[in-house]
Amino acid sequence: MVPGSVAMRSDPGDHEANDYLGVGKDYYFVTGGNVQFLLYDANGGVQIVMESSATPSSRFTFGFAAPGNGRLVPGEYHNIEKFPFQSPDVPGMQIANNPVCNSYPPLSGSFTVIEASYDAEGHIQRFDATFEQRCYGMTAALRGHVRAGIAEPVAPYPPEPEVPAVLEYTRYWGPFTNEGLKYRWATPRGKELLWYRDRNRLHVGV
């Protein structure tokens, strides 16, 4: 185990078009109590594992690799492919909890290495990076800042102002009861929009 921290912000979206992994929420974990971090070499790159046994439990993995499985050094890495299955000449990255991004189109994104320190044998000792990842070709992204092997924690994302729930719908007459409703919704971060239809009325609540 090593000292570590991570801050993540997941973009909300309309209906099921939000970020697949973060589902429109903010996350912040720091070593201590129920939270532990692991940092090690893996598949030619760097792997970080964060586990929290708090309720509800959480487990995130962070994988990064330089093109050609070279040593990661400070700098920007764009046009990533899914780690550890990236092509030889491109960088690899994968942020996962459960589920992971498995389907086509593959994940996309970029990361910036702020610090990468190794021991005399070339094993990773300290790692600091920011990242942005999108799953399944969605526009919504998971963004974050992760450190491992470094005691000073990253800063959490500042809270966002609350926004009211919004529902837009268009109704079309059709031969069946369940036809003719198109909808789009947006809610305050981390909250769900509850709605049901009763005959010709639409009931909405948060």
Describe this structure in words.
It is built from no helices and 15 strands. It has a six-stranded antiparallel sheet with strand order 2-1-11-10-9-6, with no helix packed on it. The chain has a five-stranded mixed sheet with strand order 3-4-5-8-7, with no helix packed on it. A two-stranded antiparallel sheet has the order 12-13. The protein is globular and about 45 Å long. Residues 172-180 and 195-200 have low confidence and may be disordered. The protein is an all-beta fold.
List keywords for this structure.
206 residues, mainly beta, six-stranded antiparallel β-sheet, five-stranded mixed β-sheet, globular
Short description:
By secondary structure, the protein is mostly beta strands.
